[in-house]
Amino acid sequence: MRVTLLVGCWLLFFFSATTNAQGYRPEKVSKKAAQLYEKAYEKAATGNNKEAIDLLQQATDADENYADAWIALAKLQAESKNYSYGLICYRRALSIDVEYFKPFLLSYAIALAGTGDFNKALEITNRYIDQYKPTGKTLEAALLRKKNFEFAVQQEKLAAAANEKTVFSPKNLGATVNSKMSEYLPSQTIDGKQLYFTRRVDTYNEDFFTSSGSKTGSWETSSAVKGSLNTPQSEGAMMISQDGEWLVFTGCYRADSYGGCDLYISYRTPAGWSAAINLGANVNSDQWESQPCLSPDKQELYFASRRLGGYGGSDLYVCKRQENGTWSAPVNLGPSVNSPSDEQCPFIHADNQTLYFTSSYWPGYGDDDIFFVRKLGDGSWSQPTNLGYPINTIDREGTLFITADGKTALYAAERKDSYGLLDLYSFELKEKNRPYPTRYVQGKVTDKKTGKGVEATLELTDLSTRQIITKVKTDSSGQYLLTLPSGRDYAFTVNQRGYLFNSDQYFLKNGVADSAAQKNIVLQPIEKNAAIVLKNIFFETNRFELNPTSQTELDKLVTLLLENPTIKIEIGGHTDNVGKAADNLALSDHRAKAVVDYLLAKKIDSARLSSTGYGMTQPVADNSTAEGRAQNRRTEMKITGL
Fold first, then answer.
1. Quick one: pLDDT at residue 515?
2. Alpha-carbon separation of residue 562 from 171, 494, 567 (angstroms)
3. CA of residue 436 relative to chain centroid, distance
4. Cβ partners under 8 Å of residue 520, min gap 6
5. What was the pLDDT predicted at 514?
């Protein structure tokens, strides 16, 4: 509550007390208590709530039946989010004179909701509306609170019906991260080894800090990021890319800004972080832009903006990275996310499908709540889901950062065990609010002949829908990082002109591996006798009809032949040693021909294609193990002519 509103409420005590009071008469309180109350009023009017609280406590000690002092004390406690103590004060005032207390029933209800007692809060709010009969803006405020409390009560009933247990035990990240100043807006690299956050270093200046994970599982002593990023100006609303190479943030009122607050980017260099670069007029407008967040593949940039043409207030937008490295014009996320009110603090998880944000519009507990939506198959978003109590409360909530496993969330809060003001905490998300658990694979793409890094494109494609989930490029040295959300089976392909593509698969439909994977990829230059295994060509056991999930790989092969119109290829079929040799030879021959038939149907010249079945005659692994037999059952492509 703002000081001006608080002062207004205190004036109401003075000017309405005589007409409303019956048992309680303010003019009868002790002179000492009244003087202390006056001094508290003066302190609160200048924003010194701590001294005002102390004076009000002295006033209630001087006259324990001083209802106005108890109510003012309760309001200041509520402003400090100390709702439990506020309730004690409200109940003491209520016990002095029920009739006098009627104008303050809504404030009492809000304090009840602040402690999570939404049923009682709803009951008191209804009593306030029925008995006090507010009008105008006061009635509007009461009806809004009633709506919030009804939502909260309904959520409690749903949780009880589902036998959900609410466990919320935030853990302070410790003194190596937190300080007597405020720390907020945390983010991590996908491996969880590096933490980045904003610290308010003085009244007007914010800087970026970082901490490394230690072998004991705690965080090492934090320090300001190295390089040219931190300046005497404020750097805020920061997010590190999942690979730790880019950092996007908000800078306000800079010489190169297009509006009040713009979005900037900094790059990791051997000397530290580069000086900030404005993301340009395609991204920024003459209005407010803030709270940027990069998708895990760094191909999309989400942010909040008050630019014209939105649905109202602050909306969420996304820009897409173009082939030349620039960003597209922003696209509004649409009415399933944005509303006539404010949507802010976007966070896209490593799964690249689950987006968290705050909103003051969608059904919730009060003020700004945290919601999430999921990206649908057509690229649109699901309807928002409220994360529920106690993550969401009657107060304004901020952004969350959720680790790759989908279980742990980081956020900023001011709690009893804080070292200063806002501290960074972690807690475990309810399962129903989690994104898809996500592993990652990283490595280097190199040329088979030279061993040098290759700039290539990597694609992760859903085998069942053939939808490209992620598309990333290596850096100039061939390094890459790719996220792998659980819940789907994927084809993984690496492409670059002048090379045969490389393919692999990740079967994650029924779960996700616990550890990260290191995968270095070697690309073969296009030359005679170069060969690859087509790892995403699938057949049913002992059959040669192509499985529909093979289409992604087959279409990659079509593209290769179209881009290189002179090459000729052989498709080779291979089996393990289970069964009769003659049967295996026939099966492998039919399978190779099935691939050629697909290529012919795509208008590839038959003179460029041949097929051979090798049966079990060319094993590449030991047939005595299931893994070895699986490797031997394969389809290969070899260049036979240029």
1. 53
2. 57, 17, 9
3. 11
4. 443, 444, 445, 446
5. 52
Please, which residues bridge with residue 252 across strands? 261
In which region does residue 116 sit, left (phi positive, over 0), alpha (psi from -120 to 50) or beta (all else)?
A: left
**pLDDT score of 226:** 95
Task: Give CATH for domain 185-203+234-432.
Answer: 2.120.10.30
Q: How many CB atoms lie within 10 A of CB 452?
A: 9
The tokens for 91 are 């109940």
Residues 6+ apart with CB under 8 A from 501: 493, 494, 495, 523, 532, 556, 560
State the pTM of this model: 0.86
* Terminal Cα distance for the chain, rounded: 76
Domain edges within the chain: 3-161, 185-203+234-432, 438-641
What is the rounded CA–CA span in Å between residue 511 and residue 93? Answer: 56
- Residues in contact with 220: Cβ distance below 8 Å, sequence separation at least 6, in sequence order: 176, 211, 212, 213, 214
CATH topology of domain 3-161: 1.25.40
Q: Which amino acid, residue 142?
A: A
Planar angle of CA 539, 499, 444, nearest 5 degrees: 90
CA distance 47 to 450: 69
d(CA 571, CA 566): 16
Q: What is the rounded distance in angstroms from the CA atom of residue 108 to the CA atom of residue 86?
A: 8
- Contact present, 637 and 557 (Cβ < 8 Å): yes
- pLDDT score for 103: 95
In angstroms, the Cα distances linking 578 to 372, 581, 585 are: 50, 8, 12
DSSP-derived 3-state class of residue 48: coil
Question: Are 587 and 630 in contact, with CB atoms under 8 Å apart?
Answer: no
Give the pLDDT means over successive 10-residue stretches in the chain (642 positions). 37 38 78 94 92 95 95 93 94 94 96 96 96 94 96 94 85 94 93 93 88 84 94 87 95 89 95 94 95 94 95 95 92 96 96 94 94 90 95 90 94 88 92 92 94 94 87 90 89 94 88 69 95 94 93 94 95 95 96 96 95 96 94 95 92
Q: Which of 429, 304, 434, 330 is nearest to 372 (CA)?
A: 434
Map residue 489 onto helix, strand or coil.
strand
Task: Could you list the beta-strand ranges (E) of 414-456.
Answer: 423-428, 438-447
**Backbone φ, ψ for residue 390 (5° rounding):** -100, 10
Tokens found for residue 240: 């590190």
Between the CA of residue 249 and those of 232, 284, 472, what are the distances in Å?
15, 12, 22
Scanning the structure block, which residue is given the tokens 């291979």? 574
- Correct CATH for 438-641 of 3.30.1330.60, 2.60.40.1840, 3.40.50.800, 3.40.50.720: 3.30.1330.60
In the block, which residue shows the tokens 């970082």?
210
Select from 3, 95, 103 the least CA-distant residue to 43. Answer: 3
Q: Count CB atoms within 10 A of the CB of residue 640.
A: 15
